[in-house]
């Protein structure tokens, strides 16, 4: 597994965690919990955005790490 694939997996996990935290914030009626979940979601989203920038940089410097481009290319037989 390449570093590009690993970074994309980490980014996907972070984005999933952000979505979960936002869902928790919507589901709770406790104002303190709602604020905490929202704050945590915002913090993780900031981290995810930073990682996304790093992934974009990596892919621009090392095109072979472009995970989604590879996945879309037809397989050669």
Helix proportion: over 70%
Q: Characterize the main sheet.
A: none
Report the oligomer. single chain
Which outline best applies? Answer: elongated
Rg, Cα atoms, Å: 17 Å
Counting DSSP E segments of at least 2 residues, the number of strands comes to 0
Order of helices and strands: HHH
Q: Count of helices? A: 3
Report the mean per-residue pLDDT as an integer: 87
What is the first-to-last residue Cα distance?
Answer: 22 Å
Tell me the β content: under 5%
Uncertain runs are: 71-77
Q: Classify the secondary structure makeup into a structural class.
A: mainly alpha
Explain this structure to me?
With 77 residues, the protein is mostly helical. It has a domain at 21-67. It contains three helices and no strands. It has helices at residues 3-27, 31-61, 67-72. Helix 1 (3-27) runs antiparallel to helix 2 (31-61). It is elongated and about 45 Å long. It comes from Neomoorella thermoacetica (Clostridium thermoaceticum). InterPro entries: DUF1657 (IPR012452). This is DUF1657 domain-containing protein. Pfam families: DUF1657 (PF07870).
TL;DR of this structure?
The chain is an all-alpha fold and 77 residues long. The chain contains 3 helices and no strands. It has helices at residues 3-27, 31-61, 67-72.
Helix and strand arrangement:
Elements: H1 3-27, H2 31-61, H3 67-72
Protein name: DUF1657 domain-containing protein
Organism: Neomoorella thermoacetica
InterPro entries: DUF1657 (IPR012452)
Could you name the key traits of this structure?
77 residues, elongated, disordered C terminus, mainly alpha, DUF1657 domain-containing protein, DUF1657
